[in-house]
Amino acid sequence: MDPLERVTWALRRTELAVQALKEQRLRSLDMAVAHYALLISVHSEPGLTGAELARRLNVTPQAVASLVARLEGRGQIERREHPRHRHVQELHLTDAGRAALRAADEVIDGVERQIVDSLGPDAGAQLRALLDQVAEAVREG
């Protein structure tokens, strides 16, 4: 099979195109996709540590530390001491972080609508189901 005809290549091309569109649209908020991913992760699981975030986002702890420092500098993230482990810092959104996340969610929702509108609701739901199946298949190894 031609490598460019593989499903995995189609997934990669699609991911790159979606990421580029999200980066372009989030730029109006002075936000990168990586910042959005961090904000939504901390929103979903308040109290995550940097190491936990690195695993969830599939990036290095150093990359997370840099992102956290930038968002902390913007007043969107705050570090709090872990209740049982005083050397561990938990991450939490601030009010400014929640506001930034709401604004970014509106932008990302527009990207989602653009994709689903071009496919139609039935095909959009089918694509979502197929992508869930792909994720499950690769998790099973």
UniProtKB/TrEMBL annotation:
<dbReference type="InterPro" id="IPR000835">
    <property type="entry name" value="HTH_MarR-typ"/>
</dbReference>
<dbReference type="InterPro" id="IPR036390">
    <property type="entry name" value="WH_DNA-bd_sf"/>
</dbReference>
<feature type="domain" description="HTH marR-type">
    <location>
        <begin position="1"/>
        <end position="136"/>
    </location>
</feature>
<protein>
    <submittedName>
        <fullName>MarR family transcriptional regulator</fullName>
    </submittedName>
</protein>
<dbReference type="GO" id="GO:0003700">
    <property type="term" value="F:DNA-binding transcription factor activity"/>
</dbReference>
<dbReference type="InterPro" id="IPR036388">
    <property type="entry name" value="WH-like_DNA-bd_sf"/>
</dbReference>
<dbReference type="GO" id="GO:0006950">
    <property type="term" value="P:response to stress"/>
</dbReference>
<dbReference type="InterPro" id="IPR039422">
    <property type="entry name" value="MarR/SlyA-like"/>
</dbReference>
<dbReference type="Pfam" id="PF12802">
    <property type="entry name" value="MarR_2"/>
</dbReference>
